[in-house]
Write a structure and sequence with these properties.
Blueprint: H1 16-43, H2 48-56, H3 75-88, H4 90-109, H5 112-124, E1 129-132, E2 148-152, E3 155-166, E4 173-179, E5 188-194, E6 200-202, E7 216-227, E8 231-232, H6 238-274, E9 276-277, E10 280-281, H7 286-314, H8 320-345, H9 356-366, H10 373-385
Parallel strand pairs: 1-4
Antiparallel strand pairs: 2-3, 3-7, 4-5, 5-8, 6-7, 9-10
Amino acid sequence: MPDRAPQPVDRQLPTDEARDLISLVRDIAQREIAPSAAEEEDAGRFPREVFALLSESGLLGLPYDAQSGGGEQPYEVYLQVLEEFAAARLTVGLGVSVHTLACYALAAYGTKEQQADHLPVMLGGGLLGAYCLSEPASGSDAASLRTKAVREGDDWVIDGTKAWITHGGVADFYTVMARTGEDGPRGITAFLVPADAEGLSAAVPEKKMGLKGSPTAQIHFDGVRVPDDRRLGDEGQGFAIALSALDSGRLGIAACAIGVAQAALDEAVAYAAQRRQFGKPISDFQGLRFMLADMATRIEAGRALYLAAARLRDAGRPFAKQAAMAKLFCTDAAMAVTTDAVQVLGGYGYTADFPAERLMREAKVLQIVEGTNQIQRMVIARHLAGPEGR
């Protein structure tokens, strides 16, 4: 393994508090996450104890209000925390992003009573969340979901199956989109469902090419009964809530992608400095130096793009187009950078003795989750040219 330690990213942070926060995150990442990342990913082990530590440290609710138990940090800061975690282990970075996504509907659309009852323990009480939108037959076409919630007195009874659920089977609560009315986007409502609800079960986790430590599973709802006070927002508002959540969630994926890419670049630079061929380090060869330069440029461009979108969000301005652009560019950049990192390491890059091959496998899923990159192009084009078929 390369013995040259990577230099920390030189971050532009708005406050001293944010700089202290990043220092704390780096310390946790280096001590508690990175050392066992390769072994645990290979074994498919989910690091629940790490998420307990993050909760105790106040790191699972960073972008939410302090009065609800959150860290009240701007997205500009929160996303850079995600990047640091993802660079150490994507299972952790992505897990924090998904948990934040799962809390969004309650934080943004819940009543004061709902927020007081549930948010503090969700954000800092050791709980872990999951977000249930996709289904076996409705992925990119999320508005066609078939999971139903039927009103029975003061309760709702949910039946159906959700698919591709990160934290499926290990989460403590699920934010669930279910059909309560007509076909299409206006007939969908959001619910907060506890994991121990009778009739809720998880399938065997999917066998994936990467991100093996993060469980992804179908969630089955068989007559799951939830009271109306766990309905989030108005009836029929669920799809709008889902899209609003995904705008922010896509920024989380973008930040995670840049974290993975940064880890791959650090590995490639360190390896190139110590690997000697033809009597000198391979980092002296111009062809390889240009590869490293292109990798670094993609990372810097992606980081600037997701931070620009985050600053729009923090200012209360529209950012959906920029979020789609950031998710598209950053995840494509991560795929390119990790592929190049494997090439820099040559045959060693193709072995599990070095992290480059794992990072390459993990980067691929980021082009798919929370809206494929083809969907991101559709979103961007709609902002530019209007809806299709006008």
